[in-house]
Design goal:
By secondary structure, the chain is an all-alpha fold. The chain contains two helices and no strands.
Length: about 70
């Protein structure tokens, strides 16, 4: 699951700024590169993991309905 708990530890491109949820798409893109996968595959996996550990999030029935868009 990708999240931005560490508001005081921003990614390097946001140095001296607060880490915000708006950074998640770019964080997901970088994470996908590090894991040698695509942003879409990482988004789908993150969405599946979130639904598995937090079943009440199952309001989204289609993987394309993921609440985390990736550019």
């Amino acid at each position: 699951v990708l999240e931005t708990d560490a508001h005081d530890i921003p990614p390097h491109w946001a140095y001296r700024k607060r880490n915000e949820p708006a950074e998640l798409p770019r964080i997901a893109t970088v994470a996908a590169q590090l894991l040698a996968t695509t942003p879409d595959a990482l988004r789908a996996l993150s969405h599946q993991n979130a639904r598995r550990v937090l079943p009440r999030l199952g309001l989204h029935t289609n993987e394309s309905d993921s609440p985390m868009p990736v550019p």
